Amino acid sequence: MGLMDGKVALIFGVANKNSIAWGITQKLHEEGATIALSYAGDMLEKRVKPLAAEIGCDFVEQCDVQNDEQLDAVFAKVKERYGRIDTLVHCVAYANRDDLGGRFVDISRDGFKLALDISAFSLIAMAKRAEPLMENGGSIISLTYFAAEKVMPKYHVMAVAKSALETITRYLANDLGPKNIRVNAISAGPIKTLAAAGVPGFRMMLKYAEKAAPLRRLVSQEDVGNTAIWLASDLGSAVTGEVVHVDAGYNILGMTVGEEDLAGL
Ligand code: NAD
């Protein structure tokens, strides 16, 4: 008996085997969920289809989340095939490299709109389309990062997008709560993925997080997947509107240097 037996999960954001979305997909599959995947761009098809085949998933649909017609088409296909969605996973983010790094005040208007549209508005667009397919309630999960709460180097426009995503999480939770649809975000510690490679200085952030976090380790796609199972399944039945940190404890720190680093100050 799996925690997700009989449930249908639609997951956006698998790009390759390192994607956080793939870590979540594998866990949901292990717990018995039927998986439907959506990915962006022709280039990714050759990576995503073989991964889907590994778990016996043959629902693999392309969708650019900036395109309403493509979003409509994916949800219509899920409705036609399964008639419902129990879990919706949003693991999608994008920003122009110019708007990461440099000076925060130099973020461009177009870059701001692009990052916020793909990385934050898309959660509203997906939730609106999922709602009619969640007649028995459901769980919506997205991925955020600590830069939404505190200033992190270079994160710039994506930090603003993540703040928006966290606020959207709370407003959606309030809107959809009466239908027993729960909406939560997982704030993951830094993980080496394709999207993370676009953040200047990311390797340094990995080293720093590992050294400073209370658990003295990085987090993995599997760690995030475990929390996704909690939020997606009945184990999380009364949890909504939350930002759950899966970051080895990094976010609790007010000062991230150890006593040894302070010696001699
Ligand atoms: P990833 O590159 O594997 O995933 C990002 C996904 O966004 C890709 O699948 C990409 O195709 C998709 N995407 C980008 N533009 C899109 C569009 N227009 N339409 C549809 N999809 C589009 O990287 P990841 O790190 O697994 O990212 C997943 C989520 O986790 C993101 O929201 C990211 O911000 C978040 N996150 C990542 C980290 C980290 O350190 N890697 C930490 C915290 C949160």
Question: Any overview of this molecule?
Answer:
There is one protein chain. This protein is of the alpha/beta class and 265 residues long. It has a single domain (8-249), classed as Rossmann fold. It is 43% helix and 14% strand. Nicotinamide-adenine-dinucleotide (NAD) binds next to α1, β5 and α6.
Write a short abstract of this structure:
This protein has 265 residues and is of the alpha/beta class.
Topology:
Layout: E1 8-12, H1 20-30, E2 34-39, H2 42-54, E3 60-62, H3 68-82, E4 87-90, H4 109-130, E5 138-144, H5 156-176, E6 181-188, H6 194-197, H7 202-212, H8 221-232, E7 243-246, H9 259-262
Helix pairs in contact: 1-8, 3-4, 4-5
The structure holds nicotinamide-adenine-dinucleotide.
